[in-house]
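note to self — DONT lose this again. spent like an hour looking for the file last time. sequence + predicted structure for the chain T wanted, 517 res
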Amino acid sequence: MSATVTESRETEPGSRWLRAVFRGLAAIEKAGNRLPDPFWLFWILAGVVAVLSAVLAGLHVGTVLPGTHKTVRVQSLLSRDGLVLAVQHAVDNFAQFPPLATVLVVMFGIVVAEKSGLFETLLHRLVARVPGRYLTFALALTAMVSHVAGDAAYVTLIPLGAALYRAAGRSPVLGCVVAFVSVSAGFNASPSLTTTDVLLSSISTAAAHVVDPHYVVTPVANYYFGLASSVLMAFVITVVVEKVLARRSDLEPDEPAAAPADGEPRTVEATVRQRRALRLTGLVALGFAVLLVGAMVPASSPLRGAHGGIVDSPVFSGMALVLGVFFTLVGWVYGRLSGTFGGAPDVVAAMADGTRTMAPTLVLFFAISQFLAYFSWTNLGNVLAVKGAQALRDLHLSGWLVLLGIAVLIAVMNLLVTSGSALWALVAPVLVPMLMLVGVHPETTQAMYRVADSVTKCVTPMSPFFMMAVGYLRQYRKGAGIGTLASFTLPVAAVAWIVWVAFFIAWYLLGIPLGVS
């Protein structure tokens, strides 16, 4: 890959700063390639926890928990009790890992909607008739909507972006770039709830329990901010693309009149049957929402929480099931009406097939669950959180300055650890309780993480979707490489990081609710 970067430096137009950036990318790529797979990375970190806990336990390191005045000391994972935890409770650690069941339940519905063709047709219809001058904004905003489909958004939207731009008389190279950077750089900005909301909130809740065992971070804890951010990011991407990227002189493909490449949609138009299926599915989705809201209107409704509450209701705490049922329903309806599903057995088959695609995630979850169990049991999280909070108090830093520092840290770490859930599982056990002790709510820490985690996804060669996007580019420009794509995505990432972080800090300082909590 490094040879490709070198070649890109020579063939891509640019200046001294751009060549310096390419050298930086090459260094990042070289360092990142030396990192083990995230599965092994968490086992290595578990080993570090074992050794560190043994050393600190031998030194009798501990701390006093604020509020409870309870003294906790580091426990050695290499002790008898630690080995019992590691061996006897390994299955329980995995089974009780908060994101495991919630993500699976949501994915059952997501894969039904995906296999039915609903997502692909919906994305087509969202941008099919948009005037050329609004195409970039429409595609970027569609990418924000597509986040509900998870990683499938990359596979669907990148070739679709190329086809749309070519149909509008513009460069398919630019269409690929706009679609990729919109999905990746704005991954945590969405006008709808996604599996990421469920997954990250589960990890945040587990981390918050270090300080408050009863604290719950709901899947909608960042919804207001995510909704506003989706429009902001679409606007920012549009401005950078039209004012900078669209003016490049190297946008033309090798063969301007070439037929659509393999895997690229042959048309951006849905069939009559698909359009009808989409309209009726939309009515079913609306009906589902109306029934759900209507069922929660009566103060005595069993779907209300204690004392008639909404936030603590079974609907919010069981959001994974609600989303799973919703996507299963709309996927089944669309599949039946469009002809992609013949009957109920096809729905079960779609769930089974989609679950197989979750296998790598489940394997990673096993390693993460063991690491977090070890980290929690040794009390390293408590000690680091309290000591870190004390250091922050001694520095007298404002909350927004601390959050800004976290944004920088996460953005750098994300260049090497590209899995958002894996990185949050790694840093949340320390960051969430540490900031809780200085008055920053877990929802706020999680929102800042999501901003920083998103933006740098589009510039790191460590992401498999970055390399997939390079593959799509090569369908139009055979000499395209890592540097080619990075030279397009770097300006977007830089501007997006500055604007989105500033937007978050302003939101935080104004005290606007991030979501429903």
